[in-house]
Amino acid sequence: MAEEYGIYIGGEWVESSAEELFDVVNPANGQTLARFPQGTREDVQRALEAAKAAFPQWKSTPPAKRGEVLLRAGQILREKKDDLGKLLARENGKVLAEARGEVQEAIDFFEYIAGEGRRLLGETVATELPDKFAMTVRVPVGIAGLITPWNFPIAIPSWKIGAAAVSGCTAVFKPATGTPILGAKLVSVLEEAGLPPGVLNMVTGAGSVVGDEIINSPLIRVISFTGGVDTGRVVYGCGASRLARVGLELGGKNPIILMDDADQDLALEGVLFAAFGTAGQRCTACSRVIIHKKIYDEFLDDLVEETEALKVGDPLDPSVDVGPVKGREQEEKILRYIEIGKEEGARLRCGGEKLTGNGYDLGTFIRPTIFEGKPEMRIAKEEIFGPVLTILEAKNYQEAVEIANDVEYGLSSSLYTQNVNLAFRAIQDIEAGITYINAPTIGAEVQLPFGGVKSTGTGAREAGTTAIEEFTEIKSVYVDYSGRLQKAQIEE
Ligand code: NAD
To answer: Which of 56, 174, 226, 317 could disulfide-link to 249, CB 3.0 to 4.6 Å?
Structure first.
C-alpha cells in the first residue's frame, strides 16, 4: 500500500488544502511508493506564517543549542541509514551503495554543521580612533525558501536545512515532486531531534504553484535553489525583483581530461564511475571525456568494452552497476539527446537505446551510451543528465583546456596526469567550481565548499566553511567607550 502524506506546518503533519494528490513512482518498476498533496498557494502561506512566528525565538536561541539539534539529527539518521538507503534507492533509482552513500553525506553534513553552532565566526577589526572597539557579528537573514531537485533527495535538503537552521533562519522547504519521501523522512528526523515547531515547514507540489509562491513571497529573505538552469533563471529574476538574496546551484557539463601520461587504468575506473554512477544524473557527473590524441584509440576501446559490461537493472540488487533513470520524462529527454547526437553525426560506440523485455519495460532503463563527438555538437555542450558520455580528442593540454572551458557551465572538472606542473596549471586554467586531479568529477566532501561558476550558479557556495554565508548577514558593530563624540574620517 502506498503511504499517504500530508504537509508539515508548525511542527505537525497536517492536511493540505489541496484536493489532489500526486504519486511518487519507483523508476525501476513503475510501482507507486507514496502519495503527496499537490500543494496550494494557501498551503505555502500557512507555512510562511509558521516560519514567521518561529523566527524570533529560533533567532535568539544560542547557536550552540541550534547545533545540538542538528547533531542529534545526524545521529538519528545514522541509526536509520539502512532503511533510508533502501528507500532512497527505490524512490530515486540510484544503486544501493550510492543511495547509502547519499544518506551518509546527510549524516556527515549534520555532524559537520552542528559544530558551526560553536563558531559562526565574526572578526575583530582595528579602528582609527582611540577607546573604540570594532567587530563583525553574524545574524540570520530571516525566513528561507529552500527548493530542491530529485537527484539528491536527502543530501541537498540536508545541506540547505542544516545551514539555514544553524544560522538561525526558519524555513519553508519544497522538495522535488519526483522524490519527496526522503524529504519527508528528513523532516521527521529533525522533529525527533528536537527542532522546534515552525523552524522547518514542508509543502509538496508543483514548482509552478508551490515553488512560485515561495519565490515570490515578500516574507522570504533568502532563496536557496538547486535545479536546472531554466528554472534557476526564473528564480533569480523573482529574487532580483524584490532584492532578496538568491543562491543558485544549477547544471553542469563536467569534463575529465586525460593527458598522454595518465594512469589509464585509474582513469578508466574513474570515468566509468563519474559518467554512469547514478545513471549520469548527478550535477557533477562526467559527460565529456577529452582525451589526448596519443592515447585516444587505446583508451576509448577499453572504455567502450568496460561500459558494455556494466550491468543495468534493479538498484537494490548489489550486483547491478547502473539503475534506472528517474521516470518517463527523464527517459524521453535522454533518448531525444541520443537522437540529436546521431543527427549531428556523432559516432555511436555503445548503448544508444532503452532496455526492453525482462521486466525492463516496467521501469525506465537506458543503456550506458558513448558517442565520439566534436566540441561544437549539442551533445558536447548541453547538459543531458543521463548515462550519455561524449568523447572528444585534443592534440595537447592547451586544446584540451580550451574545449573543457568552451561550455556554458562550470561545476566540476578533472585532469588525469602524472605531471605535477600540469596538474597545478590546470587548477588555475579550468573554469569550474571544483577541480579534481587524478580522481573523477564526483565525490565531493561536505567540509569543502560546493558550487560552480558561469551558468552553474551564483551566490555563496554551499557546504564547507562557506555554508553559513548564504543564510547569515554580516553586521558591523562599533563600540565607543571614550565618553565623547569621536568623528571618523573628519579632521578636527
Ligand atoms: P528543476 O529545475 O526542474 O526543479 C528543481 C526544483 O524547482 C523542483 O523542486 C521543482 O519543483 C522546482 N521548480 C520548478 N519550477 C519552478 C518555479 N517556476 N518556481 C520555483 N520552483 C520551481 O530541476 P530538476 O530536474 O529537479 O533537477 C535537475 C537539475 O538540477 C539538473 O540541471 C542538475 O544539474 C541540477 N542540479 C544541480 C546541483 C548543483 O549543486 N549544482 C545539484 C543537483 C542537481
So the answer is: 226
Q: How far is the CA of 175 from the centre of ligand 1 (A)?
A: 10
What lies within 8 Å, CB to CB, of 200 at 6+ separation is 8, 161, 165, 170, 171, 173, 187, 190
Q: Is 249 a residue of the active site?
A: yes
Q: Count other Cβ atoms within 10 Å, centred on residue 7.
A: 27
User: In the structure, which protein residues have their CB atom closer than 6 angstroms to any atom of ligand 1?
Assistant: 147-152, 174, 176-177, 207-208, 211-212, 215, 226-228, 231, 234-235, 249-252, 283, 383, 385, 411, 452, 456-457
Taking only the tens place, the pLDDT of each residue in 24-53 is 999 999 999 999 999 999 999 999 999 999
Distance CA 422, CA 425 (A): 5
Q: Which residues contact 138 (CB under 8 A, 6 or more apart)?
A: 120, 121, 122, 167, 468, 472, 473, 474, 475
The three cell numbers of residue 9 are 506546518
pTM more than 0.85: yes
Beta strands in 352-471 (DSSP E): 369-372, 388-394, 409-410, 412-416, 434-437, 453-454, 457-458
